[in-house]
Amino acid sequence: MKLFLSYLKSNLRRLLMLLLFQAVFAAVLLLYRAPLEGAAYGLSLCLALGLCFFIVGFLRYRRKHLALQRVLNQLQEGLPTLPEPADQPEADYQAMLAVLDEDRRRIAADAAGAWDQAETFYTAWVHQIKTPMAAMGLLLQSGQPDVALLKRELFSMEKYVDLVLTYQRLGSETTDLVLKECDLDTIIRAALKEYARLFILKKLTLAFTPTDLTVLTDEKWLGFVIGQLLSNALKYTQTGGVSIYAEGSCLSIEDTGMGIPASELPRIFEKSFTGENGRLAERTTGLGLYLCRRACALLGHGIRAESKVGQGTKVILDLSRPELSAE
């Protein structure tokens, strides 16, 4: 009944026009003094013919409704084949539905990919942060724990927490980016102060040549990038040390660590890429350098790496002024 009333409503204008034509037809016959029986017969034929068209139209309307109901039930799996459009506007609506369905598929695929990547990252992150936690537990069980070692493990945990917070901030739609003229040496010294204890514990040397550069950047985000590069250098360097110096408008952070195979070098800034060194040294998220690349892209800085296996790695930050205005 509801479907029939809906059909009546959608065809109300046509029904009114049919009644109007019937009235005009009847008025013309009466004006010409046509026999009443003949006029009634003609009107009855017109009404019967109109009723037939009305019934056929309703059956088509019902058939299309049932077809669309089946389509609706199958939308979870994607847009199925739609009924043949009755006119051009209906064909246009179907074309719009196809575009919307394509967008829905793309958004669903992106969301699924982001979820898989996040799940991979957090799983690796949980395993990674358990390492310093376990080390601290063992140190505390010894009765007289080495305070310096405890501080080192606590520092590692803090850096892992910072990493996941940075991952969240860069994944959001907005970032707290504030560009201004910054003294590069101040940012570098702040990062070195954070990692000084690790340099001492690992007995690695540090050669820092002041750059005397002023760069247009975000102090916090550039500090994160430099800190992450120092962390990587310390992680994969067992002997020798780290050098930090400027070459023109580029900042170089160079270590004497195990180096990166040439086949892996183009991929080190990819998301979740760990490489052979990451698998050998310890379980890592493979996210640090990826976040560095993302942060540099936001800041308008370039980042690249050079490396030789067994000789070390050099990461270069291109701090040329981006085409942006300072706040």
CATH superfamily of the domain at 176-318: Histidine kinase-like ATPase, C-terminal domain
- List the total number of helices: 9
> Any low-confidence stretches, pLDDT <50, length ≥5?
none
Q: Which CATH architecture of the domain at 176-318?
A: 2-Layer Sandwich
Count of distinct strands: 7
- Strand arrangement, major sheet: 2-4-5-7-6
Q: Which structural class do you get from the secondary structure elements?
A: alpha+beta
In CATH, the topology of the domain at 176-318 is named Heat Shock Protein 90
Straight-line N-to-C gap: 66 Å
Main sheet overview: 5 strands, mixed
Strand coverage percent = 5-15%
Indicate the overall shape.
Answer: elongated
Helix and strand element order: HHHHHEHEEHEEHHEE
**Overall radius of gyration:** 37 Å
DSSP helix fraction? 55-70%
